Structures are given as structure tokens and as C-alpha cells.
User: Fold these one by one.
Assistant:
Number 1:
Amino acid sequence: MAEVERAALGHCEIASRANTPWGPSQGATIYGEDVFCHSTAGHGEFQLAPEQNARVHPSLLSSSGFYEEDAEWAVVAQALPDLFTGYERQLADETLRNHWQEARALLQKCPARRTHTRNPWV
């Protein structure tokens, strides 16, 4: 079931040489419009364009638009839930609660799922 859900998301692998805070990208996955997940020699990270980054709650926002793969990926999944599987969204919620205490209160106040058509924090 998870494979079917993941396939339906339409993520696409591409060649990339973008510069990231962790070094040059060695490849990327397109998660959605202006949302990339880069692989580098030492790490991985999500890169959001400014309009996508604006969907992130201000207290969790990275001004650079880059979010590392270990825990900050959950910020991206919370802001753009339609780009992730149900299981990934559940893991993201748990990760946020475990890594950012202030996120616990935010998650209780925010809608469970948001659409890409509006900024839920305005």
C-alpha cells in the first residue's frame, strides 16, 4: 500500500549540481513544484523556493529555504503534507514533537492537513 501511495505522488529523480549548505548536490528528487530533496556527499536536504518556504510556520522557518534530512525534513512535510505519504506525515508529526517543544503546541492548533492553495499561518 505504501508503495502505491508513494508512486501516486509522482516524485521524480533528476541530475543536479545545485549548491547547498552541505556541498554540491549529487542528484535530487522533485517532490513538487519548487520542492527538491538533494543528496550530497555528506548529507541530504530539502530545498524550498521562497513561495513554498512561505508555507512553513514562522517559528520553524529556515530563511535559506534549506532543511536537513535528519529532523528538519519534518518541517517540510508539515508545511506541504500533500507531497508526502500518510506514513511520512505521521513520522513528521512525531519528529516535530520530539525535536521542537514549541511545535507541540503549534501542531495542536493547526489543521491536520492543509492544501497548497493558501498559507495556513496568515
Note: Residues 77 and 90 are 9 Å apart (CA to CA).
Number 2:
Amino acid sequence: MSQSTTTPARSGDGTIGLAAALDICRDAVAEAERLGALVSVAVADSGGHLVAFTRMDGAEIAGPVLAPDKAFTAVANRAATHELAELAAPGGPLFGLHANGGGRFVIFGGGVPLQRGGQVVGAVGVSGGTVDQDVACAQAGERAWVQR
């Protein structure tokens, strides 16, 4: 993982409330609709705990597990999950990452950390489309957070 200058937020610092989490979900789903994808979206707080979750009608059955785990991975590693794939590949500095964290670490795209004041305060995780669609939807959710 590339070294980040951000750190996880302490309790009470820039927390992601339910209203914000629902806005993030809404914008991620809107992007999925634009792309023709059916996805699940999860928003986690700075401790990796689920704040909000939504699943589009017809979305694949793995999404309710993968979306929260992508959000958890992005918070825990302070990095987008698509950036972790190369780092966790054989010979990479984070090789074996996916086998840690009780099996919760996901090292393919769709998890994006959310920052406020230079600190990671949560993350959005998306699953159900192609990797590129999941990343685009998660980034749309991130934009909803940045615009708040």
C-alpha cells in the first residue's frame, strides 16, 4: 500500500451520519443506473461499521457481503481497494493482505475511503457491476461526501 498522509478519524471527528450515508448511497445508485449496472452499496464509518446499505432490485447475491467488506477494507487500509490489487499481488509489498482481516479484506475495485480534514472518516463500498463500474459508482458516492 502506498503510504498515506491521512489517518483514521478519532471518535467525534467528522463522523458520517445517516443522512450523509444515504446521500452517498443515492449517488452511487444513480451512477449504477446511468451505467446499466445493478449494485449493492455500503457506507461505513471510521471504525468500519456499517452506517447505511442499499441493494438495487436484481443485484447479484454476493453484494450484501462484498460491498460492506470493500468499505471496511478501504477504511482499514486508508486506500481505495482497486489500488490494493497490485500491492497485494505475489511479490508486492502487501502480498497476502486478502488472507488477513478475518477474510474481510477485498483487493479488487469498488471500495473508496472518505476523507474530511485530511482524515479517513469512513468509506463507500460497491459490488455487483464490473470492477470498473463498481469503482465509478463508489467514486460517485465519494463525490456526494465531498460536496457536503
Note: The two ends are 28 Å apart (CA to CA).
Number 3:
Amino acid sequence: MNSDQTGILKIHRIPNFVGRIRSYSILVDGTRVNSIKDGETAEIRLLPGHHNIIVKLDWTKSNSINVNIEPGQIKRLHIGREQIKGLKLVALKGFYILLILIGAITGIGAFIGVGVAMLVIHRTGKLKLF
């Protein structure tokens, strides 16, 4: 592709503890074109026109965004995880504390381990492309 006839899509992955060691796949018009690691920015040359962008990690995928690329244009997107807030966050944290208590009462260490792990790492929601 001649650089005068293409545009550039830059996607920055916002650093996050959850999934830090995993690479996300970048799909343009349903085809995997690149991958992106935690904190990196991927640069993809695209032909002019409308393109559908999705980022995937295993069975999880982001929302899709349609972009219109023009020759010589640079478009920027970010990929991150939505923050869980409000009552949903309170309910999740309460559930994890309940797991710890059940483990302490019954002596089943797995409940304690899962509860503690989820309290530490579960602060984010689904993938969000913006």
C-alpha cells in the first residue's frame, strides 16, 4: 500500500492490571490485522473508506466502532476496560467478602483464596473501545 493512498489508525491500549500479560487482537472488518500489548500503541495502515474496528481477548470483545479513513489521515482510538461503579461494585465486593467468610467458617481454603483474589483484581468490567 502506498502511504499517500492510505490513512493510519492508531489504537492505544490503556495499561490495566487485569489481563496485563495478554495481547488483545485487533480486527478490522472482521479480519485480525494486529495485536496490542498492555500500554502499547498499534499503528495500522488502512485503505480509504469505512472500516469496522473491534478488539478481542479470547471470547471477550469490545464494542465495535465504525471509522471513516481518508488518504493521509490519522485516526486515534483507545482500548481499555470500563470501571465498575455504584451498587454493582458494592454487590460484587460484598459477594467476594461473603466467599472469604464462608471459607473461614467451613475451613475451605479455596473460598478464601478466590474471595481474596477477586477483591484484589476485579475492579474492571468489559472491554471498551473509544
Note: The mean pLDDT is 85.
Number 4:
Amino acid sequence: MTVNPRHHLAAASAGAISANVVPHLAHGVTGKAFPTPFADPPGVGDSSPVLNVVWAGMNAGAVAAVVFAQRRRVPTPAFAISYAVGAAVAALGLRSYFGRVRQTPMTARTHPTTSARRPG
């Protein structure tokens, strides 16, 4: 069975989406707020723990759909390597992004115009 670039892309995408499941599920089940695309502003403001669990579930469903579509290729080393590379690259990217977002004071994350003002 030959593997074409679309199969590598599908496997890497599944790995990348899998990496996104972890922080949202972890924050959701521990009862902590965390940014999701449904926050205000999207991806920056915090969402409720319940919404984080829902977002993690949506991501897990997307991974399941891609893996199911690629089920004949899942046992191949090419799929596993592409999946792992996608997961690692996404994990590093998510770590960098959320590291910056989480270090920004909450008022600056939710209200960009108030970050320049000083209280008092």
C-alpha cells in the first residue's frame, strides 16, 4: 500500500487535533476556566469548564472521524510517524500560544482597550 501526501496530512491533522484535546479536557475536568474559540475574544478570553469539556469532545470526535476514514492505514508506521509529528508540532505551538495568552493580565485579554489604562 503506497502512502500519498494526503494520507500523511490526514494523520498529522489527527495528531494535531489530539494535542488540542488534552489542555481543554484537563482544564474542564479540574473545573478551571481556559480559552476556547467560543470565548470573548475567541481563543483569548476564558470559557467555562463545561464548555472546555464540550470543546475537547468535539476535537476528539474530529480525531475519531479522521482515524476512521484512514482506518486501513492506522497500523502502518507512516501513519504513526505522521500522527506523532503532527501531535508534537501542535503541542509545541499550543504551548507557545497559551503560554503567551495565560501570562497576559485578564483585563487585557478580555478588554484590549483597558490594558493601556492604569487604575487610580
Note: Residues 5-114 form one domain.
